[in-house]
Structure formats: structure tokens, C-alpha cells
Amino acid sequence: MSSLLDSTGNDFPEKYSTDKAFEDFVAEECEPIGKGTSREVFSVKGKNYVVKKALKESDTTCNWREVTSYLNYVEDRYRLAQIHSWSESGMYLVMEKIEVDSVATSSFDYPAWVTDRKPTNIGRAYDKTIKLCDYASIKSPDLVYKSEFA
Ligand SMILES: Nc1ncnc2c1ncn2[C@@H]1O[C@H](COP(=O)(O)OP(=O)(O)O)[C@@H](O)[C@H]1O
Ligand SMILES: [Mg+2]
């Protein structure tokens, strides 16, 4: 049975809250579940979301690329783990939780703009939809949609 729940709750800080608000939330509520090259990822017991924390100030650009991609590529949202909130500097980001699942990865249809195509970035959301949880590494929109910018 899935460990994911059908509720995000709304106990995490709202968009553009201070980094301190997210830092306190992570310290009080969260447990580490993963780490990449740029971000550490935390989960909250019984909740259907994770908090990503940039490892260095310069890594906040990863979170911003993920946020702006989520906001911009609306037609791809069905295959992107949803982004719920982020801190004012971009140091923290709150994302829908998925269960990383190697079986799900074989047929995953990546958005054209995503460059990091590792199986560990794909899994199943609560509703069993297969989604991407790391979409911070992206091509320039100019390379993906040449005609728009020609
Ligand atoms: N939304 C999520 N749900 C569940 N696990 C996640 C989620 N986001 C990230 N993870 C786990 O944490 C790892 C590191 O997160 P990731 O976003 O890939 O960081 P980085 O940008 O540093 O590579 C992922 O490979 C994945 O295993
Ligand atoms: Mg990654």
C-alpha cells in the first residue's frame, strides 16, 4: 500500500515567507529523506509533500529554475511533482511527494526542456500518476522552442 496520503495539509510556510520560517519548520517537523548534488530533501511524517533545501546560497538557482519551470510549462504539469511553496530567497521549496519507483521510469515521457534524466528523479504520486521530482536542470527555452524566439 502506498505511504502517500491524499492531503498536502497547509502547515508549511506560505510562498515568499522568510527563510527563517522554513528553517524553523524543517527543524521542528521534518526528517531527511534524500540528497542530491545541490539540495537536501526532507519529508514530514503523514504529509504528502517534501521540503527541498539548497545546500549553498549559489544552489538557490536550482530551486528558482524548478519554480519558474513549473509556473511556465503549464501544459507539462501533469508529469511534474507539484510545487506548493518557496522561501523568499529560494533557499527552500515545498514539493508534492512522490514514491521513487524504477518500474515507472522505463516509459516516462520527459518534457523536452528537461536535461537531467536519471531514474531516481521519477516516481508515482498519490493518484499513481508518474511524475518527475527533479526538473531543475533545463535547456534554454530558445533551444526547446526555437520558433518562438527566432
Ligand atoms: N518530491 C519528491 N518526493 C520524493 N523524493 C524526492 C522528491 N524530490 C526529491 N526527492 C529525492 O531526493 C533526491 C534529491 O533531490 P533532487 O531534487 O534530485 O536534488 P538535486 O537537485 O540536488 O539533485 C532525489 O533524487 C529523490 O530521491
Ligand atoms: Mg537530482
Description:
- The chain has 150 residues and is of the alpha+beta class.
- It has a single domain, classed as Transferase(Phosphotransferase) domain 1 (Transferase(Phosphotransferase), domain 1, Orthogonal Bundle).
- The chain is built from five helices and eight strands, in the order αβββαβββαββαα.
- It has helices at 19-29, 60-72, 102-105, 141-144, 146-149; strands at 30-35, 39-44, 49-54, 83-86, 92-96, 99-100, 122-124, 130-132.
- The longest helix is centred in the middle third of the chain and has 13 residues, at 60-72.
- It starts with 18 loop residues before the first helix and ends with a helix.
- The model has no long low-confidence stretch (mean pLDDT 90).
- Bound molecules: adenosine-5'-diphosphate and magnesium ion.
- Adenosine-5'-diphosphate (ADP) is lined by residues 34-39, 41, 50, 52, 62, 81, 95-98, 100, 120-121, 133-134, 136.
